[in-house]
Design brief:
The protein is an alpha+beta fold and 289 residues long. The chain is built from three helices and 17 strands. The protein is 16% helix and 34% strand. The longest helix has 28 residues.
């Protein structure tokens, strides 16, 4: 009787061991099933970490201080560059406005095309944007534009005494020199410039901002970061003039190109009556990537 109980106990123990082994093997080799769900509940891709996910939103956040802001996304043949700042200061397309859809485009999450500037040396055909309002000696300002080119030379954004044609007085200019470097210049009895160390004729999109004020001097940002500055350059030439985009003379300036008209593509040009902070500039640049 005792021997039988002992054998029965061993049999039960063996069955339990075998059962445990089966469970372990089934767990180890059974297919794993898991599920993970994520959902963005809006349609603007705002899951990005940037404060502003589009160039329109980034510029709009600082529109209160903008003199004007042009998206440069009108259709080919347009004559008016619509002011997106809310100030109603529309610009005028000079020459022929040509819209293109490059791939990639700057500000890819914004709808619309880019502005193709032809770099023509014939004044009646030169592509650029003129601004109708005349300003008297702006000493605190920021200029901004997205650009793409493979051609060294040409003015991007500047201030001149003439609304069209070649200005007799001209400074507060951002231009590409003969080497393809970006130069930001002002005049005060002599030219005072800050120049980027590298070139930007790689046919890629770049974001450039130039700032100046009596307290901060001159700063040149490219793609969200300062690339050149001089805090001692604080006073530009005192005259009344017009802001211009894409063309004006840069005669007499360091590294002046033979062609003063920009050749390439542009999007989102703006001028502000304040100095954009480093954070604001970085936000604008990030929004266009």
């Amino acid at each position: 009787m005792t021997l039988r109980k002992l054998r029965d106990g061993r049999a039960v123990a063996l069955v339990l061991v075998l059962a445990i082994v089966v469970v372990v093997l089934c767990t180890a080799f059974a297919p794993t099933r898991s599920a993970f769900g994520a959902r963005i509940t809006n349609d603007t891709d705002s899951a990005g970490t940037a404060p502003y996910f589009t160039c329109s939103a980034a510029v709009g956040a600082d529109a209160a201080n903008a003199l004007f802001a042009y998206r440069l996304g009108e259709a080919s043949g347009a004559t008016t560059a619509v002011d997106a700042s809310g100030k109603g200061l529309n610009g005028n397309y000079q020459g022929v406005m040509t819209a293109v859809a490059p791939s990639p485009n700057a500000c890819p999450r914004d709808s619309g095309t880019a502005y193709q500037l032809n770099g023509s040396t014939t004044s009646t055909a030169t592509s650029f944007v003129s601004v109708p309002t005349k300003y008297t000696n702006p000493t605190t300002f920021s200029t901004e534009v997205w650009f793409r080119t493979s051609v060294a030379g040409g003015m991007l954004v500047g201030f001149g005494s003439a609304a069209t044609g070649a200005s007799g007085q001209h400074d507060r200019q951002v231009y590409l020199n003969t080497s393809g470097q970006l130069v930001f210049g002002a005049y005060n009895g002599t030219t005072q410039v800050v120049t980027s160390p590298r070139t930007y004729t790689d046919n890629a999109w770049h974001h450039v901002v130039a700032t100046m004020s009596p307290s901060t001097g001159m700063k040149l940002y490219v793609d969200g970061a300062v690339v050149a500055s001089n805090a001692s350059y604080t006073v530009p030439e005192n005259y009344a003039g017009y802001w211009r985009i894409g063309y004006d003379t840069v005669s007499g300036w360091p590294g002046q190109p033979s062609n003063f008209a920009f050749t390439g593509q542009m999007r989102y040009a703006a001028v502000y009556g304040t100095v954009l902070s480093a954070t604001q500039v970085a936000n604008h640049a990030t929004a266009g990537r």
